[in-house]
């Protein structure tokens, strides 16, 4: 095993830790790790990310459920429209994007570059929603209508399908802001949504790309170990600190990706 592979597996462990701690962010690290360190094409990297994050999140869901931090009703409500959008995006929309979006002189905006920049842009939006302080006067907000949740699920599902993310970094703020869940319960609930979306999205990819199963399964196994550790550590950290720390982490990664793609 060379140094690059070793760093890749260390990164896989960190992916799991992040998922266990904050219910999202695994794909935020997985995609750049596979693209910039292990030199995978972004389309393949996003597909692998879906599998890694999906399996790791499944384990995390079980761990969080034992602690009472999973709301299955809300989770499944978000999941249904999301997984439809994720599958269709990965099966038809991503393969249909042209290799070169447009060119101007010697400059060409490629499919791979577009995916990574869009990925970073969505991360920026998610980070701002988590960092900013939300006012709460102690009143209980009414649950929103199901059709609104359905539309939100379709939108987030399409976005996560395009960027190959499990969507935890989008679902956690959505569950906090839209479903009014406490941070720790939002983290746990997001994992069941991420599990369903990621694995169904990956099924769409299996039909269009070749998979290196030995590497993918070993990378995933290490991530699963990480998520078990992350879930254990999360009980010692407050939800408020998790929320803000999550936001700053996403912000830093988004800036890094934009820098790498435009430099």
UniProtKB/TrEMBL annotation:
Give the record's membrane topology: Multi-pass membrane protein
Residues passing through the membrane, by range:
7-37, 43-62, 74-93, 113-131, 151-174, 186-206, 213-233, 245-262
Recorded superkingdom: Bacteria
Q: Mostly located where? A: membrane
List the keywords (alphabetical): Cell membrane, Membrane, Transmembrane, Transmembrane helix
Q: Where in the cell is it found?
A: Cell membrane; Membrane
Q: Which family does it belong to?
A: Belongs to the 4-toluene sulfonate uptake permease (TSUP) (TC 2.A.102) family.
What protein name does the entry list?
Probable membrane transporter protein
Tell me what organism the protein belongs to. Flavivirga jejuensis
Q: Source taxonomy lineage?
A: Bacteria, Pseudomonadati, Bacteroidota, Flavobacteriia, Flavobacteriales
